[in-house]
Amino acid sequence: MALFRFLFNLLWFVLGGVIMGIAWWLAGLLCFISLIGIPWGRACFVIGTFTFFPFGKQAVNRHTMTGQPDIGTGTLGLIGNVIWFVLIGIWLAIGHVTSAIACFVTIIGIPFAIQHLKLALISLAPIGQMIVTNQEAETGRYIR
Fold first, then answer.
1. What is the reported pTM?
2. In this structure, are residues 80 and 127 in contact, taking their beta carbons and an 8 Å threshold?
């Protein structure tokens, strides 16, 4: 299973994952221009790194995994996600959906298209999410 995950991540990276990962990082740099955007910028870099190698990991709600509410999973997180969606999220989602359509054209690209659609959903509201391994997500608690 680890070999398949490695091969899928390698193919993903070479066949376009690097482009969307860089798009996330560029969005993060834009967010860091203002001090107010730093929380969004941090999320962009975490999710951008996840976008480079998404197989074997997933995004989950941070409150669900830690069992503790925080600023990103409450009302301020919701407001932050609305601002994010309007300014940057919609554009990253469009990029992922476009990439998914291109991947769906080929049979072999379907697993990549599914990953792009998952990433498109994450790009709509990333605040309050955390990236964990599939094993950690299955147990329902963050192990680290």
1. 0.86
2. yes
- Residues shown for the chain: 144
Structure tokens at 6: 């490695």
CA dihedral 98→120→106→19, nearest 10 degrees, is 70
Structure tokens at 66: 């830690």
Could you give the 3-state DSSP secondary structure of residue 125? Answer: coil
Q: How far is CA 21 from CA 14, 73, 88, in A?
A: 12, 24, 14
Structure-token pair, residue 73: 């999973």
pLDDT digits (tens, 9 = 90+) for 62-97: 888 888 777 777 888 889 899 999 999 999 999 999
